[in-house]
Design goal:
- The complex is a heterodimer.
- Chain A starts with a strand and ends with a strand.
- By secondary structure, chain A is mainly β.
- In chain A, the strands form 2 sheets. In chain A, strands 2, 4, 5, 6, 9, 10 and 11 form a 7-stranded mixed beta sheet that branches. Chain A has a 4-stranded antiparallel beta sheet with strand order 1-3-8-7, with no helix packed on it.
- The mean pLDDT of chain A is 91.
- Chain A is built from no helices and 11 strands.
- Chain B is mostly beta strands.
- Classes of the chains: A mainly beta, B mainly beta.
Chain lengths: 110, 112
Amino acid sequence: ETGVTQSPTHLIKTRGQQVTLRCSSQSGHNTVSWYQQALGQGPQFIFQYYREEENGRGNFPPRFSGLQFPNYSSELNVNALELDDSALYLCATLDRGEQYFGPGTRLTVT
Amino acid sequence: AQSVTQLDSQVPVFEEAPVELRCNYSSSVSVYLFWYVQYPNQGLQLLLKYLSGSTLVKGINGFEAEFNKSQTSFHLRKPSVHISDTAEYFCAVSDSRDDMRFGAGTRLTVKP
């Protein structure tokens, strides 16, 4: 039990739609990272937020965006969904050099 | 930029046998190394990590790993596996402990 929660657990969207995924931490850690894990692959770093500002970004297009709120909860927004966006999306909070992962949101794009 | 290669996509092994899951990394700077386990329909759980100090790192569930700088490897080992160890295992590298790069994963299947 990491204390990191994500919602929803599963989501089905249609190509071209927009989606918002949410992440929260019981401990209120001020650094959160988002990862995309396609089927059969390792997680790929999307971006990181620190104190409500983007603090690093992986090789993802601008239609992947995020927010971090004063209570350190976070959102991942994806616009203009594509079929290849189907994946497990993981958030992780950082505490004293260790990342704590949530259970993920399974997004299916049809 | 750092990267990780997990040399085996699948490792089948019988219960109570020893196992080694191989991981090689590349990085131009000092690195931190991690092994995570992922059970079906769950997130990632940290097994162990190397940040500095002793090159032999012990983790949870009886796993250990050895950091070998000259061979740029961080192989995961367990002397005797159980059925419950069946899962996906990911090696990861970071140069800042913030931004992790993961390998493609190794599927460990423990057979009775």
